Amino acid sequence: MSDDEELVYVKRPKTIHYGSLEDTERSRQMKDSGSDLYSGAGSSSDIIGQIYTSSEYFDLENEVSKDKAALLEEFERKKKARQIHVSTDDSEVKKNLRALNEPICYFGEGPAERRIRLKELLASLGESAIPQKSGKEEDKKQQVHKEQESTWYHEGPESLRIARIWLANYSLPRAKKRLEEAAEQLQLPSATKAGRMVELQKRIQSLAPLCSQVGDVRPITNCSFNHDSSLLLTSSLSSMCKVWSVPDCNLVQTLRGHQFYVSAIAFRDGIATDSKGEVAMASGCYDGTVKLWSFDSEESIADINGHVPHRVSRLAFHPSGRFLGTACYDSSWRLWDLEQKQEVLHQEGHAKAVHCIAFQVDGSVCVTGGLDAFGRVWDLRTGRCIMFLEGHLSAIYGVDFSPNGYHIATGSQDNSCKIWDLRRRNPVYTIPAHTNLISDVKYQKNGGHFLVTSSYDNTAKIWSNKTWQPLKTLSGHDSKVMSIDISPNSQHIATTSYDRTFKLWSPE
Question: What CATH class has 158-507?
């Protein structure tokens, strides 16, 4: 086409459509095909060519509202997580995660991420999730504590009834006599009492080693004076017990028969040294055997095997001499009737091993101390626990009754000595006595004016009865002091040590 040629423009006719374009297009396609391309009877959608129509619809508002609700919930949870206070201590965070039954650590997770994870868990579970868990654990602890405080009583044999009647008849007159003597002491002028105390304190402060004796080839575990202060009985880890004269410390008798470490010994009151075939001493061993000895033989005259294989840590004769009390590591203590020649009482009540035992001067009650850090006072006439000694932080290794009948001293692994009042059923005073555990405690036998404690800090200390002030420190042993005893005449104090020696202390 050249430029000279004229362009002819054809005007397109105007088309007017009536109705919807969709209907027109459908009519056109039907004319072209002559029939329906597809008809789905009973289907939820009609398909015409490539155009799909459906009766289903998408509810946009509901979906948007659900998303909004989820977002709001997520914002609220994060806000709540920010407001929850969680410990910054990582060990505490791990402990809380473990309480929620969650892994305490994920791979590559640091303390900060772990803390955030705990916060998010608490935000979803609620802040009370961990306290509830702790509450359950606290309930378990309280249940264990109640079990420790609970006391078990067993039905005893006829011999126990006989023994209790005898104990009641024995102790009541002695209690009456003790109260009468206490009333007489109250009538004394205060100046007389003060003068006696000053004199006693001077004697105590003048204490010095009278004798230091190598008692055995192995450490010496315990010691005991006889009733007239003329003999001292010692035990050691060599399985032998020895009797020494006082005050010259000459060997009088060697008791052989134990096969293992001897940890407990005691003299029986009122037995003459020239008696024959009569029970004068008792000893207890780590293997659970208890042997009874006389002055005229190096062989035991009787064996008590009821504790085997549990350790017998301490034993004590009843003031009457008829009964023997033993503390055993099977969490019980036992009372043996030497006249009926049988065990009359097997008493449980401690949660752990019973380490020490002591009788009251009247003979009506006894006190036991255990490795569960508790002490118990038992009425021998009824068999009931009449006082629960709770206050020490660790095991009790020494107990003793004051001659006044109502004060009790306990020495513990927590380095303290506590004084208890049986009348008030409460502790009276706590003595921060030593820098290491207290192995034994003893009251003065003929007045109770002072108290002696021994310790693993290599010393023994004397304390006044009224003010609980320190009067004297007995130092001289090269190793821990295992036990102590005070002679009935108050002239000597004996200390035994792990350095294989025992020492006698006396006023200069």
Answer: mainly beta
